Amino acid sequence: MASHSDTLVVFFGATAGANGGKLGSDEREIILLVWQIVDLHEKKVGKLHRCLVKPDTLELTDECKEETDLIVDDLTKADPLDKVLQQFQQSVQAELEDLGRNSFTLCVDGPQVIRQALHPEASKKNLVLPECFFSFVDLQKEFHKCCPNAGPGEDLNISSMLEYLGLSSVSEHASGLLDVRNMVQLALHIMAEPLNHRFSCFESVKYKFESGTCKTDPVDSETVIRARGLPWQSSDQDIARFFKGLNIAKGGVALCLNAQGRRNGEALVRFVNEEHRDLALERHKHHMGSRYIEVYKATGEEFLKIAGGTSNEVAQFLSKENQVIIRMRGLPFTATPQDVLSFLGPESPVTDGAEGLLFVKYPDGRPSGDAFVLFSCEEYAQNALRKHKQILGKRYIELFRSTAAEVQQVLNRYMSAPLISTLPPAPILPVMATPPFLATANTRDCVRLRGLPYTAAIEDILEFMGEHTVDIKPHGVHMVLNQQGRPSGDAFIQMKSSDKAFMVAQKCHKKTMKDRYVEVFQCSTEEMSIVLMGGTLNRSGLSPPPCKLPCLSPPTAYGAFPSPAMLSEAGLYQPPLMASPRPQPQHSGHSATPALAYYPPQPHLYMNMNYTAYYPSPPVSPSTVGYFAAPPGAMASAVSQSHHPGSAAAAAAAHHAHAAAAHAHAHHAHPGSSPMMASAHGSLLRMQGLPYSAGVKDILSFFQGYQLPPEGVIVLYNLSGQCSGEALVAFPSEELAGQAVLERSHHLLYGHPIRLAFCT
C-alpha cells in the first residue's frame, strides 16, 4: 500500500481533551474524524467527510470545546469508534471504485492522530484496526523534504506551511473541515509545478512486538525510556501494548528485577528512534488497567546493563526465533528435565524437548529452583500457564510469562552472585565493642548448615541439633537471611570447641528437617567469611569465591554512619552488609532486660554490584531465642540521637521511640532498615495489610507526593524473619500524617487494601 498508492486520504482527528501537538497525551477518547480523498494522478479531490464519534465517557475539556466548537449534546447520538471506522472504510472503498483506483495511503498533519490516539484507543477497546492505519505519510515531513528552507520540521504547522508558500487559508468554520481542506490545498500545491514533489516518506506502525536477544552494541540513549509502576505480572507484550502505535526495537523491552530475581514493577524500553521515544514520554501517567504508569528518560547504558551480557548458554537457548518464553519458579532442587516435561504434559509440548529447558543454577552448580521454558506458539504457552501453582513433588510451581531480557538478567545475576558483597568491613565507633563471634581465628569450631527448609526457624535448628545444643557458644547461631529478611536455607553455628563441631558434622550430616535432608560441614570463622562472600565449602575443601573480585573492588572512601541527608535513594535501597552488631542501650526503666545485639543500618556506597547480597541474622543462643532482630525504628532513632546530646529534638525523639517500640513489640524491624526519624508525637503511622513482598520502595511509592525520606520507613518482620504485613512510617508533622490517613486509607497496594492508623 505504501509507495505505489494511487490516492491519498487526507485524515484528521480530534479528542475530548488536548489536540494539536499534544493530541493523545491525556488519554482522552477520539470524538471527531474528518477525511477527503486526493487522486494523485488526476490531481482531483473527492467528497469531504465529517463524522462525530461517541466516546465512552461523555465529557469534554474546556480546551476541546473551544477548539472544536462541540458540546456534549452533539455527541450523544453519534456512533462509537468501531462503527465510524467501518463507515470510513466503506466510503473510501466506494470512492476508489468510482475513481478507478486500487489503493490509498493516509496523509496526516503529524503522527499523533495515528500513533497517540487511534492505535492506543483501539488497543484499550480491543478493536482490530484496518490495515490502512498501519501505514501513512506525514505532511509536515513531506513538506520539509520538499522545502528544506521552510524551517525545522518540528516547528512546522499548517499555518506556517501556507505562509511559506504564499497561500491563503480556506474559509471554513466547521471544526476539522478547515484543517483537512488546508492540508489538501498544501498537498496539491507541492505536487504541482514547479515543486513536483512525490510523496515518499512512508511511515509504518508495527503490527506486533518482536521479542529476541539484545546485542551488546552501543544503544542510543535518546531512544530509551524507563517505565515505572507496572503490574508485577506484566510481560513484554503487555508493555508493548501500553505503547501501541510506537515502534519498539526488536527485543527492546527489558523487565527489571529486584535482588531476589523478582520483577520490581519497572522496565526499560528501547524505541527505534528519538521521535518515538519522545512520543512515549507523552504517555507519562497513562493507565495500564487501573494503574498509572510513570515514564521517564533513561540511558542506553542502563538498558544494556539489564538486557545485555548474554552468555553462550543463554545465547544458545534464545537462538530459536519467535518462541514464547515461560518462567517457572519454585521447582524442587532435585527436579530433572523429564520431571518438568511430565509436569507440563503433552498439551504444552516444549520446543525441542529438554533442549527447550534452561535451569538456573548458582556458580557452584546448585539449582536455584528457577527454570525457563520455550514454547513454539501462544496456545502451548497458555496451556502451560494454566498449571500455575500446581504441585510438582511437594512444592507448588509458579509460572509467568517471561522475556529474553529477563532470561539474561536472571542468569547473569545468579552466575555472578556471591552471598554477600565484597565491601570492606565498616569501621567501628569507639563506643561499640566488637563481639566475640566476629573473631578471625582459624580454629575449626564452626559448622555450616546447608539446605534448611525456608520455613525453618531458630527453634527448628535447635531441635535439629538435639543433644549438641548445649555445646553452642552464647550468641553462636547465625541464620543467613536474604535481602527481604527471610531465611536463605543456610546457617552457621559456633560450637564451644573444634571437637564439638566435628561431632556435630559427623552425627547431624544429612539428617532430616521437615522432609528435607540438611548438609552439615565443619568450618572455621575464616572459612565462614569466605563462604559468605560466595566461596564453596564442602568435605572436599574450600573453593574461593567465583566472582571476579578485581572487578568489584569498592571505592576507598567508606563512611560507617553517614547522615541521612548524604544518602542517595539508590544507596538506601541497597541491601545491608555483614557488620558488627552493637549492643542495645540499657534504660533505667528496663534494667532487668538482657542486652540484645542488633545490626545498625549500613548503606552501600558502591552501587554497581549486580548480585544479590545476603547478611546474617542477629546472633542467637538457646537461652535467648526471644531476641529482637533489630529495635523498632523509633528506638533506633533515639539510639542514634543519643550520640548527639546537643540535638534539640533528642529528648522528644527518645520519648517517641519508647511509644513506637511498645507498639511494635510483637514484630521485628528489618535488619537493614534505616532509622526512623520521627519528629513529633503523633506523626508515626502504622500500615497494616501490606503484601508480604512489599519493601521500602513500594511504601514510598504508595505515599507518592508526601515527600517522605526512605529512612522514615520500617518494615516489620516476625520472629521467623518473615514479613508481618505491617510497617511504621514517620511523617514530618502530625497534620501531614492525618492527611495521609484521610487520603490513603483503604487504597490498594498490589491489590491489598492498606489500613492506616496513628501510633499513640
UniProtKB/TrEMBL annotation:
Superkingdom is: Eukaryota
Query: Start and end of every RRM domain?
Result: 223-300
Protein keywords: mRNA processing, mRNA splicing, Repeat, RNA-binding
Which molecular function GO terms apply here? RNA binding
Cellular component terms (Gene Ontology): nucleus
Query: One biological process GO term for this chain?
Result: RNA splicing
CDD domains tied to this protein: RRM2_ESRP2 (cd12740), RRM3_ESRP1_ESRP2 (cd12742)
Q: Does the keyword Repeat apply?
A: yes
InterPro entries (UniProt xref): ESRP, Nucleotide-bd_a/b_plait_sf, RBD_domain_sf, RNaseH-like_sf, RNaseH_sf, RRM_dom
Per the record, the similarity remark reads:
Belongs to the ESRP family.
Report the protein name in the record.
Epithelial splicing regulatory protein 2
Q: Which organism is it from?
A: Gadus morhua
Q: What are the top taxonomic ranks of the organism? A: Eukaryota, Metazoa, Chordata, Craniata, Vertebrata
**Gene encoding this chain?**
ESRP2
